[in-house]
Amino acid sequence: MRLNMEISKTQMGSLKALQARTGAGSMKDLVNHALTLLEWVVDETAKGNEIAGVNEEESIYRVLVMPLLKHVAKQERRVAVGA
User: Fold this and answer.
1) Which of 19, 28, 57, 62 is deepest in the core (most CB within 10 A)?
2) How do the pLDDT tens digits run along the chain, 83 residues long?
3) Count of alpha carbons within 13 Å of 46, Cβ hemisphere only?
4) 43-50: long-range contacts at Cβ-Cβ below 8 A with a sequence spacing of 24 or more?
5) Under 8 Å CB-to-CB from 76, ≥6 apart: which residues?
């Protein structure tokens, strides 16, 4: 199956920078890794967990906030209450 999409030059530059930074062999590899991460994040959010960057040395916790994840959490609350 094939997926075609249009993205801006800025977004393409960001993707190429991520590909280089991560050592992903191809854009396909980069996208596959991104999808794997997104699936995990969505699954954890659906379980009621938060995703966070943690700096234990400085006791700093930064919770990942995205409209997509707010939607998942809202949907899961509806399912839990039977709405």
Assistant:
1) 19
2) 998 999 999 999 999 999 999 999 999 999 999 999 999 999 999 999 999 999 999 999 999 999 999 999 999 988 888 76
3) 8
4) 45/69, 45/72, 45/73, 45/76, 46/72, 46/73, 46/75, 46/76, 48/73, 48/76
5) 45, 46, 48
